[in-house]
């Protein structure tokens, strides 16, 4: 049985543990974190940081579709038409914000689909960690400056908490 299988008992066990803490899309988070080669605890930490519970929602950046709720295909496509390359909003469990990452998820099957949004987000994070190291990679996922440094500290604290929860 593949480590990326939705029926792998180890994946199901991790997902069930995470669901006890209110995490949505938990099985998909496990699988996509493993696919990207990042710790599952980091996957849950990032989803918690971005949406509190891994929900497939629009973000609250001060731009279009602010707080628009659940990401559906119809809402996402309307957002994408209005977005262009300058009016971006966070989308999905990992709040993909940059148009290129959203478009990458679209090429896989749609940014509105959690597994593709998670896949792109985790692959992006894995790449940044490979380039800059763990703490700086997480920081770069968020951006630059003091807010991104604080973001990295918060995600790493959540990662430690998720590591304990999943042990």
Descriptive terms for the model:
167 residues, mainly alpha, Lysozyme, 8 helices, 62% helix
User: Quick one: how many beta strands?
Assistant: 0
> What radius of gyration results from the CA coordinates?
15 Å
CATH topology: Lysozyme
Class by SSE composition: mainly alpha
Structure description:
With 167 residues, this protein is mostly helical. It has a single domain, classed as Lysozyme. 62% of the residues lie in helices and 0% in strands. The protein has eight helices and no strands. α2 runs parallel beside α6, α3 packs across α8 (146-166) and α7 (134-142) crosses α8. It starts with 8 loop residues before the first helix and ends with a helix.
């Amino acid at each position: 049985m593949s480590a990326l299988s939705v029926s792998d008992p180890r994946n199901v066990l991790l997902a069930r543990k995470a669901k006890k803490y209110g995490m949505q899309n938990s099985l998909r988070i496990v699988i996509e974190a493993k696919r990207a080669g990042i710790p599952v605890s980091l996957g849950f930490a990032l989803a918690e940081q971005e949406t509190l519970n891994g929900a497939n929602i629009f973000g609250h950046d001060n731009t279009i579709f602010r707080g628009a709720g659940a990401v559906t295909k119809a809402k996402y496509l309307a957002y994408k038409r209005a977005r262009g390359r300058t009016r971006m909003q966070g989308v999905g469990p990992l709040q993909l914000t940059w148009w290129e990452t959203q478009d990458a998820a679209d090429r896989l099957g749609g940014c509105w689909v959690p597994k593709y949004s998670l896949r792109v987000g985790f692959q992006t994070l894995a790449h940044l960690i490979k380039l800059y190291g763990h703490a700086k990679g997480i920081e770069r996922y968020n951006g630059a400056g003091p807010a991104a440094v604080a973001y990295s500290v918060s995600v790493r604290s959540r990662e430690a908490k998720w590591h304990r929860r999943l042990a």
